[in-house]
Amino acid sequence: MWTIAKISVKEILYKRIFIVIFLMSFAFLCFYGIGTHYAGKEMVSPGMGAVQNVLANNFFATQFLGIGLYFAAFITSLLAIFSSVGSLSREIESRQIESVLCRALPRHSFVLGKLIGLGGILLLFAAFLFAGVLIINQWFGGQLRVELEFGQLMQASGLFLLRVLILAAVSLAFSARISTLNSGIIMIMLYIISMIGGFIEQFGAVLKKQVLIDTGIVTSLIFPLDSVFRKMMTCLFDSADNPISFASQGLLGSMSVPNDLMITYACLYGLIALGLAIRSFAARDI
Question: Which is an annotated Pfam family here (predicted)?
Answer without folding.
Answer: ABC2_membrane_2
